[in-house]
Amino acid sequence: MRLGYAISGAALGLLLEVVFLGQPAATGLPSLHRRPNARAVVDEHIDALNRCDWGRLMAQYPPEVEIFLPGGLVIKGREKVADLFRTLVKPLQEGGLCGIKIEAEHVFAVGQTVNVQWRATGELLAEPYRGADAFVTQDGLMWAQVTTFQRDQMKFK
Fold first, then answer.
1. Alpha-carbon distance 82 to 44, whole Å?
2. How many CB atoms lie within 10 A of CB 84?
3. Which residue, 25, 57, 68, 132, could crosslink 146 as a Cys pair with Cβ 3.0–4.6 Å?
4. CB atoms < 10 A from the CB of 65, how many?
5. Whether 145 contacts 134, CB under 8 Å
6. 3-class DSSP assignment, residue 80
7. d(CA 130, CA 52)
8. Residue 59 in 3-state DSSP?
9. How far is Cα 134 from Cα 35, in angstroms, rounded to an integer?
10. What residues pair up with 63 in beta bridges, in sequence order?
């Protein structure tokens, strides 16, 4: 006698994701992808930004992530950070910054925190825009970010 169990496609997908990727992608978020060290986390972040790759960006942020913005604004949690980056990686006419290239000008690591002085350039900008971020990493993920980025300070063509 053969016993059979039916499993829905969604349940099978969730099971495979848990088994092979380590955790389910709740609410459409990609599974976490750890990097081997703090610098690799930051390099992945910058490359994903430059490629407007929301999935790669979100694969770095654990549920407890916090992003500290100028003016005292703090974005807490993976879902809210996902919303922020979902907009940021869109074309300029849709409210995003896709097409801008970020380049690190100076990098200074202290333990698992990587501080980056950066420059944004691209055809969308009338002049380069400079800023700085402190990326707090742990266990191959981006746990916090403190940024000077202010979109309203960028000069667009």
1. 16
2. 13
3. 68
4. 22
5. yes
6. helix
7. 19
8. coil
9. 17
10. none
